[in-house]
Amino acid sequence: LFISFISSVTPKLIRYTSILSPSIQTKNVAVLGASGGIGQPLSLLLKLSPLINNLSLYDIQHTKGVGVDLSHIETQVKVKAYVGKEQLSDALKDMDLVLIPAGVPRKPGMTRDDLFITNATIVANLVSACAKNCSQAILAIITNPINSTVPIATEIMKAYNVYNEKKIIGVTTLDVIRAATFVAEAKGLDSLRVFVPVIGGHSGNTIIPLLSQISPPVSFSQQELDSLTSRIQNAGTEVVEAKAGTGSATLSMAHAGARFSFSILDALNGKTGIIDCGYVASQETEFKYFATPLLLGRNGVETSIGVGKLSEYETKLIEKAKPELNANIQKGIDFAKQYL
Ligand code: NAI
């Protein structure tokens, strides 16, 4: 089942076009943290999409300027900007999809977990507002540490009695596009036609690329396996170090966030066979939360495709990731209990 789903994945070319099938219903999308390094280019890419009707930009600062700037682009997407807590509920009304890239990014030497205190509170506040104002919307969490912020979002939605496991997803698409790019580079392939499932979590060792399950199949020496796995796991740090204190991945993350949004919007519109990886509450693994390829549908996550047949190498990677991933998850759950 896993293999047949994965091999049916079509090249992930982002479509920015004004030609729309009449059956497509445009949707309402909000970006919370819209003035940030990720928020601005992500909002730009969303403004170019024919799948979107209203684009709601929210931040605690600078959204008015971002909104006016984007509103001059000649696409049909209607942009509205909201700034400050008192405008948050208006920003969320009638949203189908809420993307959350609000929070502080890493500086050199920091782990994603070092962002916990600041970002956990931001995510908890924003998700509480979503629970009150757009509880039916799909929540796509970008804010790190994802391993913990997704459990926080879940606990908050549960506390408001509006939890729907199909609708909270941690965005791990950046790991998937990095894996495809690095594998294609190493093997001289067309990266748009390479799909590497990436499972686990979204930090260092917890990022587990399944190099034994690439579509189309590719084989590696042990040395290649080690170096590619390590590069994919540490690709975020590669960017943080190159940016030398000015932030983490923003442009590639904006692309990843837009790509993930278009998968969600296509699926909400009834397009079948849409598969993307994401970090979600997990039924079929031993972890409470785990990233796997997901089949998306009209209600969000239809089902997890699972992890397929793992190589011995990948099984060991999961074993190694276990303590960190479990600790990150528990930290999120404990924070939410205290917050609520
Ligand atoms: P940034 O600092 O450039 O932007 C963050 C934005 O969030 C700022 O505009 C800030 O005003 C806003 N913000 C802060 N508190 C807020 C609140 N309570 N409500 C609304 N907006 C608020 O940071 P950047 O580079 O855009 O990164 C954002 C987050 O995304 C970080 O946590 C970073 O670690 C994470 N990230 C996640 C990735 C992933 O693969 N999921 C990849 C790269 C970054």
From TrEMBL:
What Gene Ontology terms describe what this protein does at the molecular function level?
Answer: L-malate dehydrogenase (NAD+) activity
Q: Which residues form the Lactate/malate dehydrogenase C-terminal domain?
A: 172-335
Q: Which UniProt keywords apply?
A: NAD, Oxidoreductase, Tricarboxylic acid cycle
Task: Specify which residues bind NAD(+) according to the UniProt entry for this protein.
Answer: G33, A34, S35, G36, G37, I38, G39, D59, N119, I142, T143, N144, M253
Residues involved in substrate binding: R106, R112, N144, R178
- Any one Gene Ontology cellular component term annotated for this protein: mitochondrion
Residues of the active site: H202 (proton acceptor)
Query: Which reactions does this protein catalyse?
Result: (S)-malate + NAD(+) = oxaloacetate + NADH + H(+)
This protein's source sits in the domain of life called Eukaryota
GO BP term, example: tricarboxylic acid cycle
Q: What is its EC number?
A: 1.1.1.37
* Broad class of enzyme this protein falls into: oxidoreductase
- Subunit info? Homodimer.
Membership in a protein family:
Belongs to the LDH/MDH superfamily. MDH type 1 family.
NCBIfam families in the cross-refs: MDH_euk_gproteo
What this protein is called in its record is: Malate dehydrogenase
Native source organism of the sequence:
Rotaria sordida
Classification lineage: Eukaryota, Metazoa, Spiralia, Gnathifera, Rotifera
